[in-house]
Design brief:
There is one protein chain. By secondary structure, this protein is α+β, with helices and mostly antiparallel strands. Strands 1-3-2-4-5 form a 5-stranded mixed sheet. Strand 14 and strand 15 form a beta hairpin.
């Protein structure tokens, strides 16, 4: 069983073994539609390699005793005369429960030129966020170490801040490895954490989370390192009905419900907004919740995306003949969008 796979995949592998051993001819199982993505899909891939998925419903609503979820129904085993996907005849069915008549995106591989750029935001593991009014008051308060609270209090953004309006939420962020003695010298932020976070974190089953309760549970050091050489980054919600990308200043800490792409290049911003990338991200995304919203994932959506030759994220895009054209179009797109969302006459 692959690491990170859901428990339900055990039954798929157990069934595959029974077929291989001649103890069964065909198997039909119902599971949540997450079987098609991530580590779960590796189990279906093994089934496809050793036997046949001959009938499947890839993504169906399922309501039982008030619980509304999306499910996949998968029938596999010894080959039959007909192969159907979602009620339609197909030549074969891939491990992501897509039709074999088209491209097999399960074989898409992560590309070296896209690596080390897209990161899940910081996972708090506690109520570290505060409203802007409180944060701005803290910024004016002195500390015994003569350091400003701006060192540990910063703007914060989650998915709703991207898809709706900024909530003016800030977050206490003691970084990756600040000691407790050092954190205590930022008096008001530390006192807030001690009152609102300590009692919750010390009960954690994860030893590290309880021991260093004043730090975020997953502070993402690799993300912070990638931010060190840029002034802005590209952010997109992990789960969103519509795939959109925005610029955020590196002073804004992204939440774990965002993906942060550590590039300040307008051409990359433009390519990510392209219809080609939208189609790719939808085809390689997993789906989430009753709303069946696409979930953007760095490994499957960003790191596998074939950027145009010479316009890959690790290149000096300004040297490409089309790089500047894309960059200018992206700048204009962002300018028009910002003007529409924030008309000058409505903004102080």
């Amino acid at each position: 069983m692959p690491g990170g796979a859901d428990l339900v995949t055990y039954w798929f592998e157990k069934s595959r073994e029974h077929i291989q051993q001649g103890k069964a001819k065909h198997v039909g199982l119902v599971t949540t539609q997450s079987i098609r993505a991530g580590a779960n899909r590796k189990v279906l891939a093994r089934i496809v390699e050793s036997t046949t998925i001959f009938n499947a419903w890839s993504d169906e609503p399922w309501v039982n005793a008030g619980a509304a979820v999306r499910v996949s129904m998968v029938c596999f085993g010894n080959k039959t005369d007909e192969t159907q996907l979602d009620g339609q005849d197909v030549t074969l069915i891939h491990a992501d429960l897509s039709a074999g008549d088209g491209l097999d995106l399960t074989k898409a591989r992560q590309l070296a030129q896209n690596a080390g750029l897209a990161f899940v935001g910081s996972q708090k593991g506690g109520a570290f966020e505060v409203c802007g009014e409180v944060a701005r008051r803290w910024l004016c308060s002195p500390n015994p170490n003569q350091m400003a609270n701006s060192k540990v209090v910063r703007p914060w953004a989650n998915g709703q801040d991207i898809t709706t309006r900024s909530s003016d939420t800030w977050i206490i962020d003691f970084g990756v490895n600040r000691s407790q003695d050092d954190a205590e010298l930022y008096e008001l932020p530390y006192a807030y954490c001690k009152e609102n976070i300590l009692n919750v974190r010390i009960k954690s089953r994860e030893e590290r989370t309880g021991e260093i309760w004043w730090l975020h549970q997953r502070p993402r050091p690799e993300l912070r390192k990638a931010f060190s050489s840029i002034k802005r980054y590209i952010a997109t919600p992990r789960v969103s009905k519509h795939r959109l990308f925005v610029w955020l200043d590196v002073s804004v800490l992204p939440d774990s419900r965002l993906y942060a792409i550590a590039s300040d290049n307008d051409a990359i911003f433009g390519i990510l907004h392209s219809h080609i990338h939208e189609i790719w991200s939808l085809a390689t995304a997993s789906m989430h919740g009753v709303g069946n919203d696409p979930t953007y994932n760095a490994k499957s959506c960003f790191e596998t995306f074939p950027f145009p030759e010479g316009l890959t994220p690790n290149k000096a895009l300004s040297l490409h003949p089309h790089g500047d054209t894309i960059a200018q179009a992206a700048k204009r797109l962002n300018e028009l969008r910002e003007n529409w969302l924030n008309p000058p006459e409505w903004v102080d």
